[in-house]
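Meet my pick.
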Amino acid sequence: MNTNVILQNATGTENIPSGSDFTAWAQPLLEHIAELSPKTANKITPDTLVELCIRVVTEEESQQLNLGFRNKDKPTNVLSFGYELPDNADLPILILGDLAICADVVVREAAGLGIPATEHWAHMVIHGILHLLGYDHQKPDDETIMTALEIKYMDILGYENPYPNTH
């Protein structure tokens, strides 16, 4: 399996992590995609290309996307937009989808949490990919599962538990 993380910077600033940072944060999850998402297991072969697009957005774009897709009129840290090829598509690619990560919100939240911004960026990538793989945090049991995975993959990357007061 090969992976391709596409980075789009729509902020007009160079003050965001590098493409190699985003790839490094995504890689541990993408390497375990068949385990994390059984529905994709039968689509993965040694030749499969797993692709993810990460778009770093402004607060204005985040707010527009959040309003348009979630009916919430405010910017948010990360939004996930899944993608599935039609069942009859016989292509050696698995397009996970897109993440829209709001740079200003991530930096502001990191400062408020008293953690390095890079650590929060990594958490948003993990959180967003888990959503693309079908995880959510709407019900307590689902939240427990997703949170445990976030903690696990942050640890793999060498970062602290992003939920230190709850787990």
In short: The mean pLDDT is 92. The chain has seven helices and four strands.
